[in-house]
Fold each of these.
Amino acid sequence: MPSTKFVLWTLIACGVVTLLSRILPFILLKKFNLPAKVVEFLSFVPITIMAALWFENLFKPDIGHLPQIDYANLIASIPTVLTAVLTKKLSLIVIVGIISLALVRLAIWLVPSTIHNYKINIFIFCKKTSSVIATYSGHHVRRFFFINDLTTISV
Amino acid sequence: MNNSLSVDSAVKDTMPTVFGYIGIGISFGIVAAASGMSVVMATLMSLIVYAGSAQFILVSLLAIGTPIVSIVLSVFLVNSRMILMSMTTANFFKKNSLFENILIGSLITDESFALSMNKLNFTDGKLSFKWFNTVNLLAYLVWAASTMVGAMLGRIISNPEKLGLDFALVAMFIGLLYLQMINDKSISLKIQLIVVAIMLPLVYFGLIFISSDLLILVVTLIGCALGVILKHAFN
């Protein structure tokens, strides 16, 4: 962590830009009216932003590749959606959500090999020439693997 | 949720969302403490920056010694969705004073925005300063307090994900999204369902190219544009 002074200045600068993003629209719209087209466009912000905030949590990003599915969050979403449809009570929805994910994590913890997908990268380094002479990268469903597994080592 | 815009009903309306703030606030405090921030600094960050997911990024960037300009730019980009939310909300406060507008704007969050958009469906499209400000202030104080508790706990617990608390916020968005869809009569349920369904592949494929925090802004813009097109196509 950098010096306290640096951190403090960073916080203040970040606070200012965030504050401006929040209040400038309020200040400007006090003076100007938005065209009807823009108002219509903005009427979709609530559902799109909430859907995006939810769906973003269903994936584990891997820039440059298709994201992996976050099965724990996906499975926990099912009882949460059902509770929403059946009860329409926000407090209940949140509680069911928390309990669902806790239970899913417990299940994953009990059966580690079924859902986890471990990504490993191995570099074999040559001390003499100071260069990487072989690499291996792959996905494994086990926590432990043996050197025999590395069938696709490229040299 | 009912049609009352009083301080009391604001407190009642905010209660279910408080779980989300506490869960994520504590997680943030733990992460900040684990990255070497003091309790005071972590709490100050929640008070000064007050930006949920951007704060997690801020901590990780600080920890790896990123220059201040890059940090500020990242935080701005991640939070630029606030511009959209503030623009949407500002339309309901045109008759209020500039001071009240600035106060509402300063403390608006994803959650208080989502909550207020739901509230509109019960109040004939009206929001009051009293109601919104109470929701915002409660959220702000709970967020700061949970950060402080989390940063103190950070010395004991290192893995905040274990308890399922991080799902509180996701569950809240699921709930608010559903309630918004069934209560908002200005857009037909069919169009809302299609727009939400389109968001899923947008997010999935978008994650190949853009990091998740910035992606929210991009897919929201695309989703809104598609929504407008669909609405006109069906009418």
Note: The radius of gyration of chain A is 24 Å.
Amino acid sequence: MEFNVKVWRQKNAKTKGHFETYHIAGIEEDASFLEMLDILNEQLIREGKDPISFDHDCREGICGACSLYIDGRAHGPDDHVTTCQLFMRHFKDGATITVEPWRSAAFPVIKDLVVERRAFDKILQAGGFISVRTGSAQDANNILISHDKAEESMDAAACVGCGACVATCKNGSAMLFVAARVSSLALLPQGRPEAARRAKAMVAKMDELGFGNCTNTRACELECPKGITVAHIARLNREFLKAKFSD
Amino acid sequence: MAEKLNSKIPEGPLSEKWTRRKSEIHLVSPNNKRKLDIIVVGTGLGGASAAAALGELGYNVKIFCISDSPRRAHSIAAQGGINAAKNYQNDNDSVYRLFYDTIKGGDYRSREANVYRLAEVSAAIIDQCVAQGIPFAREYGGYLANRSFGGVQVSRTFYARGQTGQQLLLGAYASLNKEIAAGTVKSYPRHEMLDLVLVNGQAKGIITRNLVTGEIERFGAHAVIIATGGYGNTYFLSTNAMNSNGSAALQCYKKGAFFANPCFAQIHPTCIPVHGDQQCKLTLMSESLRNDGRIWVPKKKEDVEKLRRHEIKPSQIPEEDRDYYLERRYPAFGNLVPRDVASRAAKERCDAGFGVNETGKAVFLDFADAIKRLGKQRVAERYGNLFEMYEKITASSPWEEPMMIYPAIHYTMGGIWVDYDLQTTVPGLFAIGEANFSDHGGNRLGASALMQGLADGYFIVPVTIGDYLSKKFAEPKTDTDSPEFIEAERAVQARIDRLFSIGGTETVDSIHKQLGHIMWEYVGMARNEEGLKKAIQEIRELKEKFYTSVKVPGSQYEFNQELEKALRLEDFFEIGELMARDALNREESCGGHFRVESQTEEGEAKRDDANFMYVAAWEYKGEGKEPELHKEPLKYEFIEVKTRNYKE
């Protein structure tokens, strides 16, 4: 297969970026999108050009590092996958493919397609944990959790922290990300003692870091590679309101 | 010589050793802990849990990772589960059995005392993880669910769908975040350790490169913990993440930490086969699939031919024409034999011409029976996400046709040599998780890597490091302007300058790929004397070629992934050579290390306990010089050493 790849190039956070288009041929249809970029980079280096920087690591769809906006969609045209699990068989031979970084005020570009997502770490540091000291836990089976509750909590805990929800949202809101963590812990008895504090602190931190407001467009759930639904946003809102009323 | 390798195993009965050691360890009072700085390198299960636990104790911790966030560490990708001797299933499990299975699974090449301690603390890990809010799978009554893994006959594996590593890492990362918020831990993402700094022979800090700005930075501490995982990416193609590397471990080796059993690399039997030469990463299919999946190849060569020409589908081959070779060869364990055994058996069938895809390097993993027995829904609950992932990658549905799988490099049991306290041969330098060598011998059992990472990080190193630090609290903060730090920084800078000065035409990846071919060919699933000698020779030649023909584009002072890869590849050359050298020295087959010269008539691995029941610890002797081998004899006082038998 062959493609024209139109890529966002930006030297660093301080300079302005622009698109450049490269032609690439000889791609197997079983190749992944990132393998295609690897091959393109080999080609660029041999031509004496600067290769394209992009974040990636596990290439199994679980680390959440890859973060490409492809043909107008976070993680590209396939549903519920990360970019690394996107395969070239989803593209038409000869197509022009546009590749951009996540666009969000809270995720500044470091270089080319690489963005800074430290804001997510900061939101979690604000309260995305249970305050348990190592070694002080009771026997695991003393806490009973119904099968369905555990599964529902796991649905939310599957978040990989990639930022597709933010990149997709027209307001640049991180609500789905925050909701996934708040909801996952709020569903479990271990998470209840700090539930109110957690919801308030994480929402406050999200606002402080420049993420936008949620206006319930549900675009985020369509692009979430792990299929996390806005039902968790509803739970976050309930937790947040409960916390506010108990103030 | 002898005192160089003092494993410091406590006296007394096996079950009392850890208690005894803990009672001997000197304590550091809370007000003195505040004066002590600890550097942790790596944020996987080991690093994140250690940093969190040390922060809780009141030490000043600095934690470094190469990713944009600690949560990206490759522990995140572990799928199947974590072992613990809880005996929740009433299937007669115990600390002793977990210990015994691990020693036996490791083919009697790990330390009794370390492995027993691992089994001993395993139960507390599950308690800790549940308290952190990790949504492990539950039975309908609300109790924790378990499944089985290779090499054992009980169900002791706890799991969260096929994403157990992710959930455990997010738990450790959450605890780390708690400590970062509390101010006890400071996090340095996108920083890569490029050297270890010794002052008066003691580990006192590290040199890093800021991966965003490119600046070289110095960090000092009273002790350094290495938790940077394994070196499986020496092979280029592996199940490791793209950025996983052995560089931090190699820097420690070059500064005097012995490197133990480097040749012990695990080849995982169930990975998605290589599809062409454009690939850079292999994907694992969890071992948990072997609970219900059956592995087979056709009995008849004509069926193999038809499969390769796509004239028939695997489901069309009748039952009597299928060779369920693991069930045939190992009736007692069947499809759940340990990984090394399963991998070699797959290779044996493929080498005999029964590989089921075009490349001849694939076998089937079939769920048809499980779907019939359990129904689609229960199979989906257990493996749904794995089936989906397989289908995304291969465009073939495991619900319709069996998966195709083949062995691939997955984990390295070898690593930095540590004593019972997890301290290396360099005072003040500790190594935990996959980065050390201590618990898995020649082969690691499934669901034990997560157990070891968290055991080391939550429960062992936070205790043992206290003994070292109890003598250090009176020492002032480490001065990073000392000659030792300046010299280390200068050496790192020289390394980087050299790489940019080469100005060749070859890409880093293309040379790494060649290294991978050498490693897989000669230091892979079957090794022999001639091949290993050839490997050492070819790696040296390739390294020379690297220094004359590689092209590192861009500059130092920017985000530069090619420079990162080039620095890591320099280290992979040395690790690769050390692996081949160790494999050459170990003239026996054990665990994942299979020397063709040492096998039984049935083709099983043949150990040589009389001559090789030792840990091979290699000491660096300088650039271009041969490393020196030190032997730590392995003594089995509490169990009888036997030939591994998974047949009956």
Note: The first strand of chain A starts at residue 3 and ends at 9.
